[in-house]
Amino acid sequence: MPSGYAYASTSPIDVNDLVLEVELQRAEAFVDTARAAHRAQRAWAAVPSPVRGQVIGNIGKLVEANAEALARLVTREIGKPIAEARGEVQEIVDTCAFFLGEGRRLYGQTVPSEMPDKQLFTFRTPVGVAAIITAGNFPVAVPSWYIVPALLCGNAVVWKPAEYSAASAKAFYDIFTSAGLPEGVLNIVFADGEETFKGLDLALEAGVVHKVGFTGSTAVGRRIGELCGRHLQTPCLELGGKNPMVVTEDADLDLAVRGALFAGFGSAGQRCTSLGTAIVHESVHAEFLRRFVAATEEAVVGDPTGDVLFGPLLDRKFADHFERILDTVREHHVVHGSTGIGRITKDNPRKGFQGDPDRGLYYHPTIVDGVRPEDGLFLEESFGPVVGVTTYRDLDEAVDLGNLPGYGLSCAIYTTDPNKVFRFRTGIGAGMVSVNNSTSGAEAHLPFGGNGKSGNGSRQSGIWVLDQFTRWQSMNWDYSGSLQKAQMDTAVI
Ligand code: UN1
Predict the structure, then answer these.
(1) Where is the active site (predicted)?
(2) Residues 24 and 133 both lie in one domain
């Protein structure tokens, strides 16, 4: 086997804190793992789905038993506030609870035939081997959205987690594989992006990967989509977002501000469902902005092991990306930073900061008023703690502004007028709509996914994800004892 090379996952709370060193594999190792998964899959598919469900139930119990340690590791490795990390681990437990039951329900249908003494059926069949490639901002919950249903449906899995969340991924993998899964059914490969691409291409060519699930950037999603298309496969793509929040003239402004604060700055704005732009009715814009800026000034930022709104950015790579976003913001806009803009340091301090800013990758929360539709900040995902604000006159204009960036993941409307809710819902192109609630924070059993630049229309979670990890097989059974030909022998009355 070709040798790999080392990668060090460090903490964004203290960039000198080494969390785990892993060996990154080459493409050939990815293919070898997929081959082994392919060999293991058949026997796993033969296990009755209620029994596979029991294994999923065991996983859920083990995750629950290890929840606090896993949450702490997530916080240390990617800087997510501990309360959110606990929530993330709970999301795995909830996902396991849902799919434990699904093992006893994996229904097919009986369908009437147009001929006598003949019956038609449908069955869900596993796809085979699922290659799952995940980002590190949700290093354990989002992988479980793929891996749990994939396993329940009788598939084997090759999982390539983000390098910068390697320790969280390793801990997740160790828990999952100690719950009674047969050898080779769930596999982990650490690799960089390019080696993963090469490995995936080879594995698709060799016919040992049958479904690709990817959560990450739109740019990488396009490449995955092109690669899968060449191999006649439809991947499950969960990509970026530029999620709008509309605040109408009749909205509860305090509630809207609380929603904007959590959606815009929670997780340091590093959720695919984070708030991008608040689109506020011109009659309440000044008041909304005043309260939003005041709430942002009060928000506690700092060491995520404590009680803070948000901690550091995920990793150096993301901090560099966010610096570039801020450069354009500095040039063009009216900025309402609370105490500053950019990296929080002893020289660029923030009031009430918890911890030592100079050790970690902390940024000021920044509100940019007056973003225009042609601005990069209006059009592109920022993936950091910056929220744009703009105004509208009538709801159709707000809907058009919300759709303009071409993403279509999540959105919100704050209003007390039910008619506006439905006009908004029918006009907006997003896969997920929140009413008087944050754009982020989806529940684990509702379809999750987007349209446009946010994905290819695939949905995860709940029963809807079953269509990603199974394929329909139909069967017809003729017990008439004669050759009955469809269409030709059908009685006409
Ligand atoms: C993501 O950022 O990739 O709705 C997923 C939410 C979370 C999932 C976000 N439950 O914000």
Answers:
(1) 238
(2) yes
